[in-house]
Hints:
7 strands, seven-stranded mixed beta sheet, binds ligand GEK, alpha/beta
Amino acid sequence: xxxxxxxxxxxxxxxxxxxxxxxxxxxxxxxxxxxxxxxxxxxxxxxxxxxxxxxxxxxxxxxxxxxxxxxxxxxxxxxxxxxxxxxxxxxxxxxxxxxxxxxxxxxxxxxxxxxxxxxxxxxxxxxxxxxxxxxxxxxxxxxxxxxxxxxxxxxxxxxxxxxxxxxxxxxxxxxxxxxxxxxxxxxxxxxxxxxxxxxxxxxxxxxxxxxxxxxxxxxxxxxxxxxxxxxxxxxxxxxxxxxx
Length: 244
Ligand code: GEK
């Protein structure tokens, strides 16, 4: 059964497949799209909420970089009990930001929440106790990923936490193919057709460039993070924590 919130963007054959963009059409179906495409998405969002309950420090900032419709921001807004925290959600898609503001306002919390339209590469990170990059880094140009992670490390308070969730490219080609196949099985089981899977894959080819786990770990280490652990993986999707 489908309704107007169901992701049907790639369901009919397209003569030309444009690069994927977070535009109004995507915003309309985004919650359905991400939950049917990213294994463990709800678990990761709930865990971000739990981590914020533990790691948010009073009188600090909490950043959700590439916040989309604010799922992680809302999970943190509902969970943070520490006094005088400001949650700042940033996304460079105006369609996402407009809708995100409405979503976030619908939930109660003790923290101040600000949703901004902007480029996370140009955003200052300061006095932070928690930073979330939930499936956003993979859309950032590879050459500037190190400086973004460095900026996050520098902006965190001691004891502050970064949650980094990403699609992975396994270092071993055979294993990489296996994980891709398992992910496609997951999408089929969630109702996506072969045509939808193939056309979405083409649309993402130039805009989403996953790294290997080793690349993520050395980037975090090189930025100064000494406490890093992957806490989640399902097929080629993972989440890790890095604590300053
Ligand atoms: C969630 N975190 O639901 N500056 C700001 N935003 C950006 C930039 C940039 N340079 N590049 C991409 N984005 C969310 C899901 S989605 C992941 C994140 C996905 C934004 C982009 O507009 C989009 O909203 C988001 O990063 C990536 O927990 O759809 O697979």
